[in-house]
Automatic annotation (TrEMBL):
Keyword tags: Coiled coil, Nucleus, Transcription, Transcription regulation
Major subcellular site: nucleus
Single Gene Ontology BP annotation: regulation of macromolecule metabolic process
Parts forming coiled coils: 297-331
Family in the record: Belongs to the actin family.
Gene3D superfamilies on file: 3.30.420.40, Actin, Chain A, domain 4
Protein name: Actin related protein 5
Listed InterPro entries: Actin, ATPase_NBD
SUPFAM superfamilies: Actin-like ATPase domain
Amino acid sequence: MSSSGGSGCKVFRFQDLRAVPDPLLELQPACLQPSPAPVVVDNGSFQNRAGWACGGAEFERPLLQFKSVAARSRGAARSETQVGNDIPNLEPLRWLLKSQFDRNVVVNFEIQELMLDYIFVHLGIGTEGSVEHPLVLTEAPCNPLHCRQMMSELLFECYQIPQVAYGVDSLFSFYNSNIQRGLKLPHTGLVISSGYHCSHVLPFFNGRLDAFNCKRVNVGGSHTAAYMQRLLQLKYPAHQAAITPSRMEELLHHHCYMAVDYQQELEKWRSAEFYEEEVHRMQLPFSGKVAGVFASAEERQEKRVQQLRRLEELNNRHREERLQQDQERLDTLLAVQELLEEGAVEQFHRRLMELNMDSAEELQSYIHKLSLSVEQHRLARAEVC
């Protein structure tokens, strides 16, 4: 994160990082021997993370990490769908983005299948028609039975998965944290899970989740980013287009923190010295002076003069084109009139029919009108010159 400024003044520029397509990984021998290693998928509503449950330092962290979104233009083929990190910039395609989630529950299994295809292909699983590895998959606390059934149907019938284990990511984290701290089984505690679309309060008693007393709050990270976006757009209305959801997520992830004691934090920020020392000032992309905002009276007058000049030139060009068309039409009618004067009556009547005229009097009337129009255009051009 780049920053600049003098002592006590922190100015940061938005990184606007673009996603880099994930490489196609090769399947390591450790994932096959002595038996196929389980694939672990953290199926989150904000991000998908996937890797292997096997020994080795290279497998301690997820090998894949990408946004849980897919984009496909209307009428495009399935093979043309972009998933996760294949979308370099989300903002231009935000209206096309689709997710497999409604809040934190999987309901769109067509998109879920695209996500699983992306994961298995990029992990290097190349077996035809099936995935011969067990799967550990996260799901929402108290996931509806219908959604669990649809997910199982997708995994067993589409991918021929041999075994599936479902779990809640926050409870996995709770178990791992207690093991690292050396706490004995069974564990008891209260888990606060803050997700992208909603948060959960999960009581855990004697190694089991007390599902009856679980609480769900429909506030998550996406609401925080949207609320911050609305506040900043109201405060800086001239920069509404530049205050995008992606930049708000960057602010949350890199420039915000969770207050342990909210009232104490408010007291700290009331201090001017603390504020100047800790505040982060964000610099939006700057492309020079905004047109029309700081223009002087002379510049505005000059702009109006230029607009009038361009309008006058456009009118003159249109008059010239009209004069040329009228002159060509007049020359054609005069040529037909000469046929009558020369005695070529049959040819004269034939030309009248081609011109949709019935008589010599009508021809003479058109010639008179066009002559006046041409003369007026020439006089107007002479006055301009």
